[in-house]
Every structure is written in structure tokens, then in C-alpha cells.
Amino acid sequence: MTASKDDTNRDQPLDGKGVLVCLVGIDGSGKSTLAKSLVSAAKDSNLRCRYVYAGFTSSFTIFRPVVALAKATLFRGNNHMETSATKGTVLRHSRLSAIYQYLALTDYIVQTWFRVGLPLARGGHVVCDRYIYDLVASIGVLLDYPLDRTLALLRRCLGFLPKPQLVFLLDLPEALAYERKDDIVSLTFLAARREIYLEMARLHQFTILDASASQESLQQLAAARVLGVFGGES
Description:
Blueprint: E1 20-24, H1 31-44, E2 49-53, H2 64-74, H3 87-92, H4 94-121, E3 125-129, H5 132-142, H6 147-158, E4 166-171, H7 174-180, H8 187-204, E5 207-210, H9 215-230
Helix pairs in contact: 1-9, 2-4, 5-6, 5-8, 7-8
């Protein structure tokens, strides 16, 4: 979304850089709906803000040929790591899965700097629908990492990415999330990811929202916090 010329210098942080807000959580928690409503609220307040889908999309750029080969070998053409039906095969080839993980994360970091880092550097605010937290949670579950290893991987990745000023975790019981969407792998998958998100929230001071609440109440609560952060409040 391109800002019009007349709002180029309005309501920007003192250092000229934009603010990054991220929404994370298990599938079915309402991240996309809330993220888009927050962008609309910011624009209604004459703030430069864009929505960015920052989930893992398999749309590799710099490593496309290598990753295509890795996907064919490890995931048999499956498009999403978390929906792979060959988890056992991946775990038996730990070296290959480690290479795939490295390529996926490196490519994600490069894409994120273009899609998120550049708009922030130009003074615009960004609301991300998903972020590195979601990708790392999926990797941790897929490859059966212990929780401490998953969290250590997240810490390393955060050192290479734009730092969010505010992260919302939309927390939802996995059974309710499973009812909301028909393309979720399993309740077990959701439960494992939810455990990781809650620990991430504790360590990285996420703002936890009850995603079982009404969309209206969530939007009001989140918008008040986001507009405050965009306006320079801590």
C-alpha cells in the first residue's frame, strides 16, 4: 500500500523510523482479521501504516533451486512444512533437514528485510500478520525439537530481523481453533505450537489477547494499544 504524498511526513516517530507490530498465534486465532483492522484504524488516524503477511510462504528467492530440490527430497513436493506427511523421513535425515531449515530461515530473513525493514526505514509503520515466531514454532514442532532448542533458535533469528515494538499473541484453546478452520493438520499439532507460543510470550513479553473474545472487543483493545505505540507511548 502506497502512502499519498500529503501524508509523507505526518505522525512519524522522532527518529524517523516506523514502528513494527506483530500478531502471532496458532491457526484459527484471528490474526489476519485483527491485523487488517489495526491497519485501517491507523490510517483513519492519518498514520502511514501497511499490512504485511509475514508468514512462511515457501516463496523462496535466493535459494529457489536448492530449496526446490530439498523439498522434493524431504517433503515430497508438499508446499508447507507443517503439513508434511513425511515427518519420519525428515527426522531420519537430520543433516538434510538442518540444511533445509538453514535455507528457509535465511531466505525468510532476506525477504523480511525487503518487505518489512525497508518500509520501517522509510518512516512507515508496519503491522505483520505472523512473524519469525510462527516459523520457528512450526520448525520446532515439525522436527521434534525440545522447547529449549526451539527458543534458542528464535533468539538467534531475532538478532537478524527488525525488532518489533509490540507483539500480540492471540491465544486460543486448540479445540476451538480446530473448529474454526478446516485445513489444520491436527489438534496435537495445535497444542504443541500453543505451548511454544505461551513460553515465547513469557520470555519476550508479548501482550496476550484472549482470541475467544468477540472481534469487536479485540479490535478496540488492540487498536488503543497500537495507536498509543504509534504515537510514541511506551
